[in-house]
Amino acid sequence: MESPCILVCSIDMKTGYCFGCGRTSAEIGAWTLYSSEERRSIMDSLPARMETLERKPRRETRRTRMARERVGGE
User: What is the reported pTM?
Assistant: First the structure.
């Protein structure tokens, strides 16, 4: 199943979009329930959404944590 997730799971409180993929938390939660056409429609809107994000997430992202744990064994 195609997904825009890049394991940067942090929601911008201003826009409601994920800093990593641009989806809303509701879209992320229902992703597997959408048809291929619905997922494609959402994915087509993501680049424009990402342009509205003004900053990077402040907390450690899931991707960063996983990489750190893989390398450092922390």
Answer: 0.73
